[in-house]
From TrEMBL, chain A:
SUPFAM superfamilies (alphabetical): Ribulose-phoshate binding barrel
Catalytic activity reported: 5-[(5-phospho-1-deoxy-D-ribulos-1-ylimino)methylamino]-1-(5-phospho-beta-D-ribosyl)imidazole-4-carboxamide + L-glutamine = D-erythro-1-(imidazol-4-yl)glycerol 3-phosphate + 5-amino-1-(5-phospho-beta-D-ribosyl)imidazole-4-carboxamide + L-glutamate + H(+)
Active site location: D11, D130
Assembly and binders: Heterodimer of HisH and HisF.
Entries under InterPro entries matching the protein: Aldolase_TIM (IPR013785), His_biosynth (IPR006062), HisF (IPR004651), IGPS_HisA/HisF (IPR050064), RibuloseP-bd_barrel (IPR011060)
EC numbers, comma separated: 4.3.2.10
A GO CC term attached to the entry: cytoplasm
Gene: hisF
Record-given protein name: Imidazole glycerol phosphate synthase subunit HisF
From TrEMBL, chain B:
Domain of life: Bacteria
Keywords: Amino-acid biosynthesis, Cytoplasm, Glutamine amidotransferase, Histidine biosynthesis, Hydrolase, Lyase
Main location (coarse class): cytoplasm
Active site location: C77 (nucleophile), H177, E179
Pfam families xref list: GATase (PF00117)
Protein name per UniProt: Imidazole glycerol phosphate synthase subunit HisH
Subcellular location: Cytoplasm
Example GO molecular function: glutaminase activity
Catalysed conversion reaction: 5-[(5-phospho-1-deoxy-D-ribulos-1-ylimino)methylamino]-1-(5-phospho-beta-D-ribosyl)imidazole-4-carboxamide + L-glutamine = D-erythro-1-(imidazol-4-yl)glycerol 3-phosphate + 5-amino-1-(5-phospho-beta-D-ribosyl)imidazole-4-carboxamide + L-glutamate + H(+); L-glutamine + H2O = L-glutamate + NH4(+)
Organism of this sequence: Hymenobacter telluris
Swiss-Prot/TrEMBL GO biological process terms: L-histidine biosynthetic process
Binding partners and assembly: Heterodimer of HisH and HisF.
Gene: hisH
Amino acid sequence: MLTKRIIPCLDVKDGRTVKGVRFEGLRDAGDPVALASRYAREGADELVFLDITATNQKRATLVALVRDVARELDIPFTVGGGIGTVQDVEALLMNGADKVSINSAALARPALIDELARRFGSQCIVVAADARYHAPDGWQIYTRAGTHNTALDAVHWCREAADRGAGEILLTSMSNDGTKDGFALDITGAVSRAVGVPVVASGGAGSKQDFTNVFQQADADAGLAASIFHFGEIGIRELKEHLRQDGIPVRL
Amino acid sequence: MEIAVIDYKGGNVQSVLFALDRLGVRATLTADPEAIRRADKILFPGEGEAASAMQELRAQGLDQLLPTLTQPFLGICLGMQLLGQHSEENNADLLGILPFDVVRFPTTPGFKVPHMGWNTLQQLRSPLFAGLREEDYVYFVHSYYAPVGEYTIAEAAYPISFSAAVQHKNFYAVQFHTEKSGPVGNRILENFLKM
């Protein structure tokens, strides 16, 4: 049976893993290569690496660091941050990435999704969408590392991304990110039911029960988190044992 | 031992090279027919789209060479599908080494496409899987599949049963990513390298 995936995320800035609250107030969480290999050993199903400085400072993702991380990993590895061209994707795949995640560049020019999917296959193109709740309008998509509101409806954009060839949606709730109050169940469920491709839920994980909830109530295919893993608050194995007890299929 | 990893711009080959490296094995990434012909073992990884992969293989003359090889050969993911006769993906004619046609997963409520993630192996019947147990997990990511047939040496279900691995003579192939399937995948690669 296909299992639900648990995905630690390494937000990387200047070669170090960092973590903030609602995309701000970053603190250091360690060496990305060491963290990546620890997570693979502990039973992570996949790893996501986001170069969070890349878009703002308009520099390419740190290809050498990607290579060092990929060398350690015998689980799938997704890389995002500042990816805007076919050449960017080629360079990352050549250095050991299995999938790439695009965000701002896809919003600036949605046809990029079609081009990348045609060239590399949908299976390796993830569209990352950062959504924030605005009363009374609902969930809207932000771009440029969460600094700019596009006013696009989150479900609408995710559906368009999937229709254009994204093989997976990585949906981050900025309203929940770093709060540890749980995933945004309403928007995750709405997106998951609106697209035919897998949806990774991100933002807000604080307890094992939060993962149970996002799988059982929001139809997420994977749950992504950062700080609870980096700072040792929840072990990947104990999280998966909890999920199995709740009747959720996991790889143990 | 000389190991050739076939280079046809087919996606995440670097992951395969890193996996071999972790097993302490040196491999050469090559499209040179002579280097491929004289290698002791051949890996044929791949991701992406069938028609453009076949176009690339034809441009390099590899579509003629590959069916004539006699050493142990391991196709991975798209590298498995390309061994079949025909793919529904952009109506592509394939290498024709194995008798299956590649088809797309039907739309089934609750089963998203691509089939992406860790799924269990069943009906293991090959030395390629020595040391594995039924229901061991491996990592899949694909939208098309080869149906179960007499060439099938492992199955998986999503929700219909399909070929997780196939074999014909020296040609072995797996739909999942051995290089990304943790200790289980490493064991399969080791088993292959011992053939």
